[in-house]
Amino acid sequence: MSSLKRLLVGEPLRTERLATERLTNPKALAVFSSDALSSVAYATEEILLTLFLAGSAALNLSLPVAFAIALLFFVVVFSYRQTVFAYPTGGGSYIVARSNLGLLPGLTAGAALLIDYVLTVAVSVSSGIAAVTSAVPALYPHRVALALLAVAILVAGNLRGVRESGNLFSAPTYLFIVSTLTMIALGVFRYATGTLAPVTAPVPPPAVPVPLTTFLILRAFASGCAALTGTEAISNGVQAFHEPVSRNAAKTLVWMAVLAVTMFLGITFLAHVLGLTPQTETIISQVNRSVFGSGALYYVTQAGTMLILVLAANTSFADFPRLASIIGRDGFLPRQMANRGDRLVFSNGIILLGVLSSLLIVYFEGKTHSLIPLYAVGVFLSFTLSQSGMVIHWWRSRKEDRQWLTHALINGTGAIVTGVVFVVIAVTKFTGGAWVVVVLIPVTVGLFLAIRRHYDAVAQDLRISLETKVKPVDHIIVVPVAGIHRAVAATMAYAKSLGPEIHAVHVSVDPAETEKLKAKWEKWDPGVPLTVVPSPYRSLTGPLVRYIDGLQRKEKVKFVTVVIAEFVPRHWWQFLLHNQSALWLQAALHFRPHTAIVSVPFHLKH
Amino acid sequence: MSSLKRLLVGEPLRTERLATERLTNPKALAVFSSDALSSVAYATEEILLTLFLAGSAALNLSLPVAFAIALLFFVVVFSYRQTVFAYPTGGGSYIVARSNLGLLPGLTAGAALLIDYVLTVAVSVSSGIAAVTSAVPALYPHRVALALLAVAILVAGNLRGVRESGNLFSAPTYLFIVSTLTMIALGVFRYATGTLAPVTAPVPPPAVPVPLTTFLILRAFASGCAALTGTEAISNGVQAFHEPVSRNAAKTLVWMAVLAVTMFLGITFLAHVLGLTPQTETIISQVNRSVFGSGALYYVTQAGTMLILVLAANTSFADFPRLASIIGRDGFLPRQMANRGDRLVFSNGIILLGVLSSLLIVYFEGKTHSLIPLYAVGVFLSFTLSQSGMVIHWWRSRKEDRQWLTHALINGTGAIVTGVVFVVIAVTKFTGGAWVVVVLIPVTVGLFLAIRRHYDAVAQDLRISLETKVKPVDHIIVVPVAGIHRAVAATMAYAKSLGPEIHAVHVSVDPAETEKLKAKWEKWDPGVPLTVVPSPYRSLTGPLVRYIDGLQRKEKVKFVTVVIAEFVPRHWWQFLLHNQSALWLQAALHFRPHTAIVSVPFHLKH
After folding, report:
1. Residue of A528, A531, A586, B379 with fewest CB within 10 Å of its CB?
2. Nearest to A310 by CA among A422, A202, A207, A168
């Protein structure tokens, strides 16, 4: 077990190495941006799918809608850029909302983000594997197994630690960026020189188109907003950058926005001039084939798209554990979330994310389209809360900061816009599945509060005045005796070193055996009388617990120490050959108040 | 959990009720004979299947072969009748072979029988469910689940206890006996009056028949010998009869033989005079339809056949746990096999048999024909060993018993005949699957010997002279301290009551926290200095164990007591909110010699 773990995650790292486990900007871009970048692979298609409901002519609106989303993207990015400087130790929506808006908005943002991280892993891995199985249809029946394997690889990679994941994930991210930018550049060049033509015939529009209302256009806009998921990743992970952390994080954030918006607008522009319609083949694949033909460059670009979709999940593996550790340190999640494992990463959060997203993949049978409606609701709720929080932040710092009003206006615009988008997404996708997330967020907040209430109550229980003096307690010692042998002799000798009042007790299942034992005990005479407790139902623990109850009442002593001889065999399989009465007794006495259980090991030589 | 158990197996019974849990002869017939009786449902077919390989004419040999098997049946039954009187406390093949032939033959017989009991359950339940799914083909895809459900019902029924299983299983057994005897009587009457005709047309014989050699006839005989499996059941269970146990068991044994042979010969006779050939419809169903037509009586008889096939497995549930308990008491299987559960039955054996046969059913996908070749090899090996043992038994008692030679001749004949049958079965079925059992028997015997060797070694380790005096041991006390709170105060107070030399130790993961703790400790001053052990890899157990190692070397004391504060939450889910360091420490220290672990519970109020 231990050596398997070493092989998978590597040697343990000393705590002092924590500060040196930082990422260069290009690696940070790969680790934190794959979610946001990969969204461009389907954002255009989401817009076209919605507009197409109103007929082919409506598709002309795709460019204005895409420009609006690009604008929104920059508003959000500049808003988060301010957060990165204002919160250099890492300012995710949870921290910003909590410190400026108060506890409940903070927890709501935290819950929304945690849920969306789990969905990001499930959606991205499923659609990445769907891309693979579209290329190799024979793998389709194994898609759930493949998706679980991908999650397992992500878990293992992230357990190894943050620097290694940077190396692991740089190549596919840059493959995607370079191949997609090349495709757009060549596409625009061929369009300018009049040599670009679509490879697919347009599909006919719906027989009964819906009216092109403002609501439909807003819905198309909302659908395209999936492109913005993952934008907050960098602001959560400021601490993973090299010093100066804020400046490096801000630079990387702008780079990410420029790359994502360029690719998103480029793909949408080419889809528009090619007159593409949404069909079985994805929009990005249609653009790709129209530009590159069906040669090697097409496959390289498709492979890059597939890989980045799977790796988009990695953003969540960098972010979910970090956010869970912050919430855990605040006492709203189990404290173990804040423990750093062997490799200095938050192992428990990584494992929890792996388990939850695997359950979603298994439940939805690895089908992306069932998961999509649940997606992005949480992200925009946390955007809105975070940016509203930033407005309060600037208002509070209005005396030190002369530019506070500019800052507040940027964040205020972001808050209003993302708030509107949140409402539009929640309303238009509600019946399709968004209701699950709308229900789950308050439930999660309730869980946070219950956990914190427990910790507070425990802290209350445990609080002690430093004036309290520590005095020895009075206790009686009970030694269960099964027979007379060296293990019992060792246990009796040990018990005698604990205190003067020892009660040896034998639970009698077989009266004939008990008589023999009593005679032998008297002959042996270990200095303690043997009490016999009959067990008509052949149970060991029941009669023993009742005997201890009676003894404690009679002796009027608060504390009982039960000394149990425990066989420790040399080989694990030998466990099966012994009754494990020690374990049963420990389990039975575990919940008894004022009862200390001592297990005295007797190591078998054979 | 506990109330679910009560519902399934009933209230616990007092040990004194053991003697009264006996069976009347008719109930004992139902409990112990279903295996032997149910074999007649397929024994005729097995003979015909083998003979048919040599063409239609060879089928005429079915009656002589059946008579030979009937003769063998009576030889075996009269042999076991002698065993029942010679071993009134229960004389299975294991006991008889062990006490007369020696250890290895005894263990071989025991291993052969245990393996065959598991096979009996798998074969009988699978073929019973196959009978059900033939009638209701829609259930076929669920046959494994149905078979596992049947095994689960048998396990629950047998855990309730022996008298209840008698009630539970009497009705189907007697339904089968009465309906089959009625079918035979009416069939013979209709044959005598010339009104009996087959309902099925004979299938054509194989295009290239094999020659009708003596070997083939012996093989047909061997195949039909499946009828004899389960004959030893009564001799194993003599103790379950009313007094006088031997006389009642012997009577029931003869009744079983008369019933089984009557039904077997009757079915074979009718199949012969009807000129039936083995085909998709079973022979017993063809006979049944020819006699009764396709009316209600046909279905009643078929239902009886189906039920008794499933209940045949119950013989093993009466016998396997009993034999395992005897072998366990002798130290060749885990001693827990000899423990009587709440309802005075050998619960562990019942559960083990249920698990093993369920694994076989799952592995062979509930297909009877894959299991059949493994079957009956073990039974005839144990017959041979048991009857050889009886010959020695009579030779040894030749001075007291004037009739010893008659007895010895009966058993000697049985031993030789069953020995020949064993060799024939093993040789003719070897490549078909019998080799698995031939390999498994010595492996099981090896396991028996390894277990006994372990118990002997442990007994050696544990042996103590009654002259040994019990003196208190010297020990140092180590208290791991995570912080200063009431649980630690309670643990320190408890530790102080154990001895004067206490070492409080704090494993430091965070140096800043440690400094605070040290200052607070000095202020509190519980009378014990606090040692700080750094943990650069953030592990709790490793540094603590190394500290204890060093302390023990320095203090030159043999024994160490580690006192651990353990949080006991009020609700199970609260376990998830605590680090469980107590459990990790216990696990880490469990294998350390001379280390007693005390867990002092701190019960959380919330």
Report:
1. A531
2. A168
Residues 421-460 of B with CB under 8 A from A: 451, 453-455, 457-458, 460
Contact A353, A316 (CB under 8 A): yes
pLDDT digits (tens, 9 = 90+) for B240-294: 888 888 899 999 999 999 999 999 999 999 999 999 888 767 788 889 889 998 7
CB A596 within 8 A of CB B354: no
> Which of B286, B259, B281, B282 lies closest to B270, judged by CA?
B286
Domain A24-456 superfamily per CATH: Amino acid/polyamine transporter I (1.20.1740.10)
Token readout for A364 is: 């939805």
Q: Give residue B526's pLDDT.
A: 86
At residue B118, the pLDDT reads 93
B/e letters for B125-148, b = 16+ CB within 10 Å, e = fewer, are: bbbbbbbbbbeeeeeeeebbebbb
All residues of chain B having their beta carbon less than 8 Å from the beta carbon of residue A473 are 493-494, 496-497
Strands A595-603 and B595-603: antiparallel
pLDDT in tens, A120-167: 899 888 878 877 776 666 887 888 999 999 999 889 888 887 555 567
Does residue A18 sit at the B interface (CB-CB below 8 Å)? Answer: no
**Side-by-side strand order, sheet with A530-534:** A530-534, A502-508, A475-480, A559-568, A595-603, B595-603, B559-568, B475-480, B502-508, B530-534
Interface check for B494 against chain A (CB to CB < 8 A): the answer is: yes
Q: Which two tokens stand for residue A488?
A: 């019992």
- Which CATH code is given to the segment(s) B33-456? 1.20.1740.10
Whether B472 and chain A come into contact, CB under 8 Å, resolves to yes
Query: Which residues are CB-contacts of B221 (< 8 A; sequence separation ≥ 6)?
Result: B47, B65, B68, B69, B421, B424
Whether B575 and chain A come into contact, CB under 8 Å, resolves to no
Question: By the CB < 8 Å criterion, does A99 face chain B?
Answer: no
ipTM: 0.73
Taking the CA of residue A487 and the nearest CA in chain B, the distance in Å comes to: 6
Residue B163: pLDDT over 60: no
**Could you tell me the CA-to-CA distances from B78 to B64, B97, B299, B379 in Å, in that order?**
21, 17, 35, 17
Say if the Cβ atoms of A461 and B509 lie within 8 Å: no
Please tell me the predicted confidence (pLDDT) of residue B467: 79
**pLDDT score of B530:** 92
Q: In chain B, where are the structural domains located?
A: 33-456, 475-603
Q: Report CA-CA distances (Å) from A8 to A158, A161, A171, A355.
A: 11, 11, 21, 17
pLDDT given at position B458: 87
Q: How many H helices and E strands in chain B?
A: 22, 5
**Partner residue facing B568 (CB), from A539, A574, A590:** A590
> Is there a contact between A538 and B339 if contact means CB atoms under 8 Å apart?
yes
Mean pLDDT calculated for residue range B176-203: 91
B194 part of contact set with chain A, CB < 8 Å? no
Residue pLDDT, tens place only, B447-503: 999 999 999 988 888 888 877 787 888 888 999 998 888 888 888 988 988 888 899
Contact across the interface for A489 and B470, Cβ inside 8 Å? yes
Q: For domain B475-603, give the fold.
A: Rossmann fold (3.40.50)
The length of chain B in residues reads 606
DSSP string, A369-410: HHHGGGSSHHHHHHHHHHHHHHHHHHHHTTTT-TTHHHHHHH
Mean pLDDT over the full length of chain B? 86
DSSP string, B557-577: -SEEEEEEEEEE-SSGGGGGG
Contact between A601 and B601 using a beta-carbon 8 Å cutoff: no
| Single-letter amino acid code for the residue at A73 | F
> Mutate which of B18, B454, B579 to test chain A, going by most A C-beta atoms within 10 A?
B454
The pLDDT, as a whole number, for residue B223 is 82
Residue B54 C-alpha, separation from nearest chain A C-alpha, in angstroms:
47
